Amino acid sequence: MRASAAELGVGFALRAVNERVPQAAPRLGAVSKTRPADMVIEAYGHGQRTFGDNYVQELLEKTSNPKILSSCPEIKWHFIGHLQKQNVNKLMAVPNLFMLQTVDLAKLADKVNSSWQKKGSTEKLTVMIQINTDGEDSKHGLPPSGTIAMVEHIKANCPSLEFVRLMTIGSFGHDLNQGPNPDFQVLVSLREELCKKLSIPADQVELNMGVSMDFQHAIEVGSTNVRIGSTMGLLKETCPRQDRS
């Protein structure tokens, strides 16, 4: 019987994922939502530096954990869930917050910019714009038609934010026998349109698409950043709580 990734440990799981990522690999973000501090610390010890959480309160608890603070000085936290405006100030107070992945409203961008300025950081907060590529009502994100206007708004009105990527969740369970995932294709086309319209070099706008179940396909069609959670085995099999997204 083959041992599971959870039984073999975090290091094995990370190596297993990285072996499936081609050379010139995209950045690998580990989804740490619902995962205990010890698991984050172990993954950090094996070289993982970027971790994403969905819930502000859970992220606050992790980032104030003395063990994580002492063991993970170079950790980079990404917020990957839907952010409500009333939670912006709480999120901006997170130590080592590096990126907000889910900007989808101009008013939200304005509030994040203002709160980050009040924090007094010497670095800009990097942000992604979330696009709802498949139009599902259950998903957050801008419609594709609003992408250029949102980028223009951030560049003109949010000096403390740095737009770096477009992201989409995309439809789950796409049958690759029917061709490439159309949601990924929409995001690739949006980048081309955006860069042409605003005269931005294409290599300055990254794409975040692909999760555990489809990250290899996402890389093949152009993703520069992927989120890995359940594929790492340990992140699913050793945690009794169920993912809430």
Automatic annotation (TrEMBL):
<protein>
    <recommendedName>
        <fullName>Pyridoxal phosphate homeostasis protein</fullName>
    </recommendedName>
</protein>
<dbReference type="Pfam" id="PF01168">
    <property type="entry name" value="Ala_racemase_N"/>
</dbReference>
<comment type="similarity">
    <text>Belongs to the pyridoxal phosphate-binding protein YggS/PROSC family.</text>
</comment>
<feature type="modified residue" description="N6-(pyridoxal phosphate)lysine">
    <location>
        <position position="33"/>
    </location>
</feature>
<dbReference type="InterPro" id="IPR011078">
    <property type="entry name" value="PyrdxlP_homeostasis"/>
</dbReference>
<dbReference type="InterPro" id="IPR029066">
    <property type="entry name" value="PLP-binding_barrel"/>
</dbReference>
<feature type="domain" description="Alanine racemase N-terminal">
    <location>
        <begin position="15"/>
        <end position="232"/>
    </location>
</feature>
<keyword id="KW-0663">Pyridoxal phosphate</keyword>
<comment type="function">
    <text>Pyridoxal 5'-phosphate (PLP)-binding protein, which may be involved in intracellular homeostatic regulation of pyridoxal 5'-phosphate (PLP), the active form of vitamin B6.</text>
</comment>
<dbReference type="InterPro" id="IPR001608">
    <property type="entry name" value="Ala_racemase_N"/>
</dbReference>
<dbReference type="GO" id="GO:0030170">
    <property type="term" value="F:pyridoxal phosphate binding"/>
</dbReference>
